[in-house]
From TrEMBL:
Xref: PANTHER family: POLYPHOSPHATE KINASE
Listed GO MF terms: ATP binding; metal ion binding; polyphosphate kinase activity
Entry's Gene Ontology BP terms: polyphosphate biosynthetic process
InterPro entries found in the cross-reference section: PLipase_D/transphosphatidylase, PP_kinase, PP_kinase_C_1, PP_kinase_middle, PP_kinase_middle_dom_sf, PPK_C_dom2, PPK_N_dom, PPK_N_dom_sf
Gene name of this polypeptide: ppk
Residues at which ATP binds: 58, 484, 580, 608
Cofactor(s), names only, from the UniProt record: Mg(2+)
Record: active site: 451
Name of the protein: Polyphosphate kinase
PTM per Swiss-Prot/TrEMBL: An intermediate of this reaction is the autophosphorylated ppk in which a phosphate is covalently linked to a histidine residue through a N-P bond.
């Protein structure tokens, strides 16, 4: 076909019906990859325990949101979006079966691998039966002083209805017998969440040889004191996960904050979605719980103790550096360095000289983003600061800088996204604190979450106004910036500044804007912009010109984008997809996607950046930003991608992808059947290097070259 002849949709062969991977099962495959890190003996032991905790925490959120939303739609008869053409009830059954298999594998990993290895390293998790009299006396004293006063056993009988059971809390089901009447009664005891889950047996022990007992185990062996005069027959551990998905009808309320606060209250009482029980639970107790929670048999997960391995997060704080990853100290980006460590960088001067691309956590957040905002807050020449806030830390220096700027009389606008899932309450608190300090706080657009990461600083310089912007892929959160991999672009470009000014006017006022130069903005422009560029690569390939697509995202679900990538692959475009979590595209399928490769990288840092790169016959088009390839990001959020223009920045992105897709670097690769294969050993039998370690070394070598 000649270059002048366009390829119409009607000229193309239909794509197969089974071309998508189910998004929920794909998410479970992602969590399986997390579990595989916990099972990997080459990873430091306390990091493996941490991956077990991450798996548990991830799965909780998956049930609270994704499974809960799917089940609610099935029960209420609402339309259930599915990208695989199967009945939602069948998908739900597959989810329950797969999740249960993974939870059993997760529990066995702890029991058979992690717990014995911890004991060998001098970190023992013990049962009450393993303790001698002296140990028991120490723990009994601790129990009486710190635990017993806050326990609240609740009876269940005709005078005491079955109590409300909060989501994700550990509970003891207890059966007691009244010796006077010989009647057996049931009671429920909540394990206090404010007390450490794993209690030190004896604080006099050496840090190299310490013992812990699970809190529920300690409490269970003191039950006689809670039920004096009664005979304790047995006890079992259980835990319920509730529907914590939220739906706010913004167009039906005048006050978003009030509507959100009501919904947060409702979230606490969402219906049960999963019941986890210890595998020693008796049939009568299980029957009672199933009846009271009104759940189906497939929602019951029978597991070996201990339940809720997210408690293993606590072990990462132990002072055992030999059992953890070797520390990596983020470095200051070369353009923000000063002659003396005590000197504060002039971030404005550095950005004015040249655009700066920072890569966290390899490069420091505190000496780049935080320093930029702190300088803006105190600089007398700064007139205004505008910023979006999606998630930030509780003691955020970012929020403190905005407050300081407002108190200094500067114009400060903060767009706080109070609908950021599970951070709603914290964001409401910060929004009110900002308002009290004189910051202009807005909450975005009705029906849309504001997910983009933007800062704009307006500064008076020599009688004119200079604009300095930061556009990132990650949140303005100093804590997560140390463990999330993200990019951020600082620029004083007139094009970018004009674009960002337009966008803030859209967010805070009544403007409707679709004309941007270096930005792609959702929901009005981003999807079409990506589709145009994908089709352009296909046209280049059909015409024999250089083509190529490289995408990095947390998730890829959007069917329209996926179909466009399939068409590009069929046209001969090499497509590299780097995804951390959900991935609905199929890779390497003959006739469909043989030119598509999919990789996943997990490790000490959470791969969080989004990159969209198009070869464009040598005139490369590369964007970074906040948007994943999901319906919500492209259609129901304010998202921003910014085009990179500096050749050095483009080279850094290229090198990043080279690492990820190299056969000599450890990663997971998707097979044509949609399963994932981890490659950690070379053909020569040697351990392959980790991508994140390579990036650390690469950045160190680059700094050394510049120093020479």
């Amino acid at each position: 076909m000649s270059e002048e002849t366009p390829v119409l949709a009607t000229d193309l062969a239909p794509l197969p019906a089974d071309r998508y991977i189910d998004r929920e099962l794909s998410w479970l495959a992602f969590n399986q990859r997390v579990l595989e890190l916990a099972e990997d003996p080459t990873i430091p032991l306390l990091e493996r325990a941490n991956f077990l905790a991450i798996f548990a925490s991830n799965l909780d959120e998956f049930f609270m949101v994704r499974v809960a939303g799917l089940k609610r739609r099935i029960v209420t008869g609402l339309a259930v979006p599915t990208n695989v053409g199967r009945a939602p009830t069948d998908v739900l059954a597959d989810i329950n079966r797969t999740a249960y298999e993974l939870q059993l594998r997760h529990a066995n990993c702890f029991k058979d691998q992690i717990k014995p290895a911890l004991a060998e390293a001098g970190i023992r998790i013990v049962d009450w039966e393993q303790l001698d009299t002296a140990d028991r006396e120490i723990l009994t004293e601790y129990y009486e002083q710190r635990i017993y006063p806050v326990l609240m056993p609740l009876a269940v009988d005709p005078a005491h209805p079955f109590p409300y059971i909060s989501g994700r809390a550990l509970n003891l089901s207890i059966r007691v017998r009244n010796p006077r009447t010989d009647k057996v009664e049931f009671a429920r005891l909540k394990v206090p969440q404010m007390i450490p889950r794993y209690v030190r047996v004896d604080r006099r022990e050496n840090e190299e040889d310490i013992r812990f007992i699970p809190l529920e185990e300690l409490i269970a062996n003191q039950l006689e004191d809670l039920f004096p005069g009664m005979e304790v027959l047995d006890h079992h551990v259980f835990r319920v996960t509730r529907n914590e998905d939220m739906e706010i009808e913004e167009d039906e309320t005048e006050n978003l904050i009030q509507a959100l606060e009501k919904e947060l209250l409702r979230r606490r009482f969402g219906p049960p979605i999963r019941l986890e029980i210890s595998d020693d639970m008796d049939a009568a107790t299980l029957e009672l719980l199933v009846r009271e929670f009104d759940i189906d048999e497939e929602q019951v997960y029978t597991l070996p103790a201990p339940l809720d391995l997210s408690g293993l997060f606590a072990f990462s704080r132990l002072p055992r550096p030999e059992l953890k990853y070797k520390p990596h100290i983020p470095v200051t980006h070369p353009q923000f360095r000063t002659n003396s460590p005590s000197d504060k960088p002039d971030t404005f001067a550095a950005i004015a000289r040249r655009e700066v691309l920072v890569h966290h956590p390899y490069e420091s957040f505190s000496t780049s983003v935080q320093a930029f905002l702190e300088q803006a807050a105190t600089d007398p020449d700064v007139l205004a600061i505008k910023q979006t806030l999606y998630r930030t830390s509780g003691d955020s220096p970012i929020v403190a800088a905005l407050i300081k700027a407002a108190e200094a009389g500067k114009q400060v606008l903060a767009l706080v996204e109070v609908k950021a899932r599970f951070d709603e309450e914290a964001n409401i608190t910060w929004a009110r604190k900002l308002e009290k300090a004189g910051v202009h706080v807005v909450y975005g657009l009705v029906g849309l979450k504001t997910h983009c990461k933007l800062v704009q600083v307006i500064r008076e310089e020599g009688g004119r106004l200079a604009h300095y912007c930061h556009i990132g892929t990650g949140n303005y959160n100093p804590k997560t910036s140390r463990i999330y991999e993200d990019f951020g672009l600082f620029t004083s470009s007139h094009e970018v500044s004009r674009d960002v000014t337009k966008l803030f006017n859209v967010l805070s006022g009544y403007a409707i804007e679709t004309d941007y130069d270096r930005l792609l903005v959702a929901p009005l422009q981003l999807r079409s912009g990506l589709l145009e560029r994908i089709e352009r690569e296909a046209e280049h390939a059909r015409a024999g010109r250089t083509s190529g697509i490289k995408l990095k995202a947390n998730s890829m679900v959007d069917e329209v984008i996926i179909d466009a990538l399939y068409r590009a692959s069929q046209a001969g475009v090499p497509v590299e997809v780097w995804v951390r979590g959900i991935c609905a595209i199929r890779a390497g399928v003959p006739g469909l996607s043989e030119n598509i490769q999919v990789r996943s990288v997990l490790g000490r840092y959470l791969e969080h950046s989004r990159i969209y790169a198009f070869e464009n016959d040598g005139n490369r088009d590369v964007f970074i930003g906040s948007a994943d390839l999901m319906h919500r990001n492209l259609d129901r959020r304010i998202e921003v991608l910014v085009r990179l223009s500096d050749r050095e920045h483009l080279a850094r992105v290229d090198r990043f992808f080279e690492f990820a897709f190299s056969d000599d670097v450890s990663s997971w690769r998707m097979l044509p059947d949609g399963t994932w294969q981890r490659r950690v050993i070379s053909e020569e039998g040697e351990l392959l290097p980790d991508l994140q370690d390579l990036v650390m070394v690469d950045r160190t070598e680059a700094r050394a070259r510049r120093a020479r």
